[in-house]
């Protein structure tokens, strides 16, 4: 799919992977709507995109929030072609710690945001994509890109909830692609390793250094621009569908 002139939603677009992707899309000529809960950052990033950007305050787990925001996108830009889901949280807790069980509330919250929130946004975005005219030799109408994590495959100690949420994102990729095939909508997932996001940058330097020492090549955290670059390629390469791509520099997460 050609990006220039298209309309995209990026959840978690106010920072990190989402911000980098939104900026890359806008630079390529797309109109971009940032869905986030950080009003200050969201408005600031949208302003840097000029007339190509807009910010919507959205709780991805809320059907009403997402419907209202997509309605605002349609009212301003008239269509929707791309949905990149970067919104998510990652906190750690062991299954049993000091004789106490993992908080069920904590577990449900992570599943709700990372997995159910992703599906909530993409299902509603896909409805609008089905209304587009088919494009190119493949007859494309839309592209959905979800964000999983290397933790979906090698979750570390304390990542039961996080790994489960991201594993769910990986597992639903193929069936969603199959569901939407006749509508000309592709669904792909990116599973990043360790990236220079606000979450990773908050780690103590000693922990960051220890993590980097265990990486293969490159021996550094990934850059958000590298995630954005892959997302852009997925959008433009019509033969990528129904698959999850690890973006982790060949790293495999150790137990802790």
Describe, in plain words, how this protein is organized in 3D.
The chain starts with 6 loop residues before the first strand and ends in a 9-residue tail after the last strand. The protein has a 7-stranded parallel sheet with strand order 3-2-1-4-7-8-9, sandwiched between helices. It has a single domain, classed as 3-Layer(aba) Sandwich (Rossmann fold), CATH 3.40.50.720. The chain has 9 helices and 9 strands. Helix 1 (16-27) packs across helix 9, helix 3 (63-77) runs parallel beside helix 4 (104-129) and helix 4 (104-129) packs parallel to helix 6. The protein has helices at residues 16-27, 39-48, 63-77, 104-129, 151-154, 160-180, 198-201, 205-213, 224-236, and strands at 7-11, 31-36, 53-57, 82-85, 96-97, 100-101, 142-147, 185-192, 244-247. With 256 residues, the chain is an alpha/beta fold. 44% of the residues are buried. The radius of gyration is 18 Å and the shape is globular.
Instruction: Count the domains.
Output: 1
Major sheet size, sense and barrel closure: 7 strands, parallel
Q: What Rg is obtained from the alpha carbons, in whole angstroms?
A: 18 Å
Strand content: 15-25%
Termini gap: 40 Å
What structural category arises from helix and sheet content?
alpha/beta
Number of strands: 9
Q: Please count the helical segments.
A: 9
Broad shape = globular
Q: Order of SSEs, N→C?
A: EHEHEHEEEHEHHEHHHE
The residue ranges in which pLDDT falls below 50 over 5 or more consecutive positions are none
Q: Percent of residues in helical segments?
A: 40-55%
What would you say the CATH architecture is?
3-Layer(aba) Sandwich
CATH class: Alpha Beta
The largest beta-sheet arranges its strands as: 3-2-1-4-7-8-9
Average pLDDT over all residues: 95
CATH superfamily: NAD(P)-binding Rossmann-like Domain
